[in-house]
User: What shape does this take?
Amino acid sequence: MLGPSALQGGSRSSGGGITPPDIHHTVHTLPPILSPVSLFILTHVEDIIDTGNTLCALVALVQGAGAASVRVCALLDKKARRRVPLQAEYTGFECPDEFIVGYGIDYAEKYRNLPYIGAVKDEFIKHS
Ligand SMILES: O=P(O)(O)OC[C@H]1O[C@H](OP(=O)(O)OP(=O)(O)O)[C@H](O)[C@@H]1O
Assistant: This one.
């Protein structure tokens, strides 16, 4: 059965569109918790869905492990950035295509601790 720490480890990728998601890292950092799984129902809670790559990989992994049902819940859904067909069952708010921070979401490892959700202004975004 999947444990909470395993799920946290499996949910990592790039959210704010700052760096590309590292799905291989995601999969390889999962501990060997997916061996004999019989039947379980999982609701995965995520802060934000961006490209959908993270959850697409995670859902496939969990389904492949024998989940009877996998449901995705996300506070924010940045649909305009989607690269794979991922549809969350439960979402809080549709999010514009901006750099979002706060409530655990960072921009270059900053502003995670803001007690509200904000968008980083263009003049603060590093263009490389
Ligand atoms: O839909 P995707 O494009 O795959 O992005 C979504 C993921 O990105 C964010 O994590 P992030 O990589 O920023 O890690 P962090 O939570 O440690 O900042 C977020 O928490 C999701 O897990």
